[in-house]
Design a protein that fits this description.
Elements lengths: L1 H12 L23 E11 L7 E17 L23 E8 L1 H10 L4 E6 L6 H15 L4 E6 L9 H10 L1 H12 L6 E7 L1 H15 L3 H4 L2 E6 L5 H11 L6 E5 L4 H9 L14 H10 L1 E5 L13 H9 L14 E5 L6 E3 L5 E2 L1
Helix pairs in contact: 1-9, 3-11, 4-6, 5-6, 6-8
Length: 358
């Protein structure tokens, strides 16, 4: 078992070389072949004392607000970030071509000025640097192509495979800041739909923020948002207690799970064998009953393509969910229950039903 754990941690560490922070420095001379994507970012990372314009893995009690204009190459392949291999070239690489800094009010004003009616708020997972999370969020937004304005909440991950416990503490540290950002978005009369997408450990942070909103009486905020947790790295018992505390939402909280997730298997080993909610078997009648009782929509997404750790389905999930048509609460694809995503299109089969649903 120890050898298995060490091997899987090695695989996590080897998922790809970390890009340098310099990829977020704007290339003013770069000629983007198409209109760049503006990535709005709110972060609890500290601002580097050594290098201007950089955020490090320090934890700041004050939220920083920034936007990056990301040029995405014409030959971009869905699900892929075309990282620069040397001097960034907007014809072949993701390239930062602009940056703006804001205070809180300026950030919200810039969102309003963008004309956004829909926003997608992405909360990244464990072992993510600032530059990785910015480019990944931009890639997801590009591939989703759903017309919503993308926002990243970047918490201070140390971006090391061995930093699991440190990252978990950093995520918890950021709970109030995320809750405040969600509340700010919900208070905007111009926004029609607010998607909140938490990946992996970002799912734990998302649930903690929802609990804080509920416990502080912000039911008005919870009524305005739609929440998706992809590959959530949360202890199963903890998740159901969180779901009980948050309560049922008008659009049921969506939980995307996959029993083959190897990264969550590592997390489970580190947690003394406690099951992670992101890899549960939704065919278990007890799980189905809990989902219905707590107003949670669980979807088995094992059929989607992924990486060797089976933990990257987020690159497809955001696009898939964001394009689902709106539905009356309690009906259609946005009602509580357990479903299996089909291998073709958006077909879904409900657990306990022989009727395929779309």
């Amino acid at each position: 078992m120890k050898q298995l754990l060490l091997m899987m941690i090695f695989l996590l560490a080897a998922c790809g070389d970390k890009p340098g922070q310099e990829v977020l420095l704007p290339m003013q001379a770069a000629m983007a072949p198409a209109e760049p994507l503006r990535m709005f970012v709110a972060t609890t990372r500290g601002q580097s004392q050594q290098q201007a314009l950089f955020f490090d893995n320090g934890r700041s009690p004050n939220v920083s607000y920034v936007s990056y204009d990301i040029s995405i190459p014409p030959g971009h392949r869905a699900g892929v970030i075309e990282w620069p291999k040397g001097q960034p070239d907007p014809r072949t690489d993701f390239v930062t071509v602009g940056r703006s800094n804001y205070n809180r009010r300026g950030f919200l004003n810039a969102l309003a000025a963008s004309g956004a009616t829909d926003v997608s708020l992405y909360i990244h997972g464990y072992n993510n640097s600032m530059e990785e999370s910015v480019f990944r969020a931009a890639q997801i937004a590009k591939d989703a192509d759903a017309g919503s304005v993308p926002i990243l909440f970047a918490w201070p991950s140390v971006a090391r495979a061995t930093g699991y416990v440190t990252d978990r503490d950093a995520a918890d540290f950021s709970r109030a800041a995320l809750a405040g950002l969600i509340a700010d978005l919900a208070e905007s009369s111009k926004l029609r739909r607010i998607f909140v997408i938490g990946h992996s450990m970002g799912g734990r942070l998302t649930m903690e923020a929802l609990m804080q909103l509920r416990l502080s009486g912000r039911t008005d905020v919870l009524r305005r948002i739609e929440v998706v947790l992809a590959d959530p790295d949360i202890d199963q018992d903890l998740f159901w207690e969180q779901a009980r505390a948050v309560g049922k939402m008008p659009v049921p909280l969506a939980l995307m799970v996959a029993p083959d997730d190897r990264a969550l298997r590592v997390s489970q080993i580190l947690a003394s064998g406690r099951e992670r909610i992101g890899k549960v078997d939704i065919r278990d009648p007890a799980t189905v009953a809990k989902a219905e009782a707590h107003g949670v929509r669980m979807v088995d997404v094992t059929s989607l393509a992924t990486d060797r750790m089976a933990h990257s389905r987020i690159v497809q999930l955001a696009a898939l969910y964001d394009t689902l048509p709106a539905a009356t609460p309690g009906t259609g694809l946005r009602r509580a229950g357990a479903f299996v995503l089909g291998t073709v299109g958006l077909g879904m089969a409900e657990i306990g039903s022989e009727i395929g649903r779309r």
